[in-house]
Amino acid sequence: MANFYSTESKIICEDHYALAATIYVPSKNIKAAILIGPATGIKRQFYASFASFLADNGYGVITFDNRGIGDSLVGNVKASDASLQCWGEKDMPAALEQLKKAFPNTHYHLIGHSAGGQLVGLMHNAMDFTSIFNFACSSGQLKNMSPLHAIKAHFFMNIFIPFSNGIFGHTKSQWFGMGEPLPKKVAQQWRAWCNGEGYVKSSFGKTIHNHLYDDLSVPSMWVNATDDFIAINANVKDMLTVFTQLNAETVTLSPKDYALDEIGHMKFFSRKSHVLWSYALNWLERY
User: Which residue range(s) make up the domain with 69?
Assistant: First the structure.
């Protein structure tokens, strides 16, 4: 029998945009509360098994869909004005405030998946986190990838995204098995940041004028996998250069060490990879 229950909720952002969310509430005393920051275009249901595991171990959890994604999409995706930047500046801060309301007077942790960890420095309330645990979080810099993977990434980023945006008014990333269809500005910013260095750093002084990348100094764990061609060690290192004060530890996992066929960029959160979840649990219990 599960030691928690879950409930559907709404998160109201500062601009009154409503985000779909799921709250996982432990039945007994709450050890701490966790915001799961989703990867680009990934719906909150993807994290349900992992969130349930955390809640079953005494942690309050919120998962949510960024605006323009999943149940947080209003109308047609081609009409969405969402961007990566507004996910970090508006959606994630509102989700953290909702987490604080749901679970007051405790410690708050971010578990970020790819973009969900990259964007934390855009959150005006990011200093409220006690720690950060990121998986597959890197700058995604194309030039650091192996030649074959760089060609594939270059085609998607620099050929398919402009083509799809021009023809359909959004990016059909689902054609490549990459989550939900992406709003036009999300894909454009994703493309620009992966072509630069330091991901979000590409927009400092341009569209981004206020951030906490130079202020965050909480303990953080950055986990990647040997079979992830995006969040390779060089790109994790590149992303970490953006956080000038962050206290960071890194771990690279090999699927064969855990009798897994794949970890890659996504499978850490799969129920089949539950053997890996102790990394997150042990981290939370440290902080």
Answer: 4-142+198-286
